[in-house]
Amino acid sequence: MDINTIIDTIAACGLIFRGGFHTYPEDDALPTDGTVVLVGNAGPAMWSAFSAEVDETGRQALEHPLDDWISRHLEAYAESWGARVLYPFEGPPYLPFQRWAQRADAVFPSPIGPLIHPDFGLWHAYRGAFLFDGKFPLPPRDDRPNPCETCIDKPCLEGCPVNVTGPEGYDVAKCVRFLHSKAGLDCMASGCQARRACPVGASFRYDPDQASFHMTWFRRSQS
């Protein structure tokens, strides 16, 4: 398989190559002689493609509109390549996408939890992975350092109005209660204020329509 073919093909639906790796015998749920190619998004490209195919009425009619749309495209690509598709949203048990991501790319846990990337900041996601039998060449892993290590002020830690990130981690229930309140309307309309406070990857921030969609489905999934 040629990695450039994968990159060019997934670009049609606004998705991007998020790194890859060759499997080892100790990798759970993976063959011992395979190649994993992670697929995700950064910025607005995926949202533009999704919005062009699935309008607001269609989104409201489906339980998981974005996941269904992504699955439809990735499964079609995988079938033509003789690959399997793995997803971060299928479970429990859930596949270790966060660990795979750190193995494949220059991403690191941020002070507020989500993985941060040197270019994309907190405005990116992993949507799936292609699993191929056998090994083929992959680009070298990006080895840039964690941008949080040189961030002195850590504005993300002061960005949340209700301080949902503490010593014990992210308080999901507290966050969701806030999003249901009048005070949470800004986060619902424009995205998490803590994420928006981070200066890294500002040019990749989601526009209001995309941010509102993700916040709405996050709140719905936790309510």
Secondary-structure blueprint:
Elements: H1 3-10, E1 16-22, E2 34-42, H2 45-53, H3 56-61, H4 65-81, E3 84-86, H5 97-104, E4 108-109, E5 115-116, E6 124-133, H6 156-159, E7 165-166, E8 169-170, H7 172-179, H8 185-190, H9 193-197, H10 208-222
Antiparallel strand pairs: 1-2, 2-6, 3-6, 4-5, 7-8
Describe, in plain words, how this protein is organized in 3D:
This protein is of the alpha+beta class. The chain is 39% helix and 17% strand. It contains ten helices and eight strands. It has a four-stranded antiparallel beta sheet, sandwiched between helices. The longest helix has 17 residues, at 65-81. The model has no long low-confidence stretch (mean pLDDT 94).
Structural class: alpha+beta
Q: Which stretches are poorly predicted, pLDDT < 50 over at least 5 residues?
A: none
Record field, number of beta strands: 8
The major beta sheet can be summarized as: 4 strands, antiparallel
- Beta content: 15-25%
Put simply, the count of helices is 10
What is the succession of H and E elements? HEEHHHEHEEEHEEHHHH
* CA-based shape: globular
Whole-number radius of gyration? 18 Å
Give the spatial strand order of the biggest sheet: 1-2-6-3
Mean pLDDT: 94
The first-to-last residue Cα distance is 42 Å
Q: How helical, in percent, are the residues?
A: 25-40%
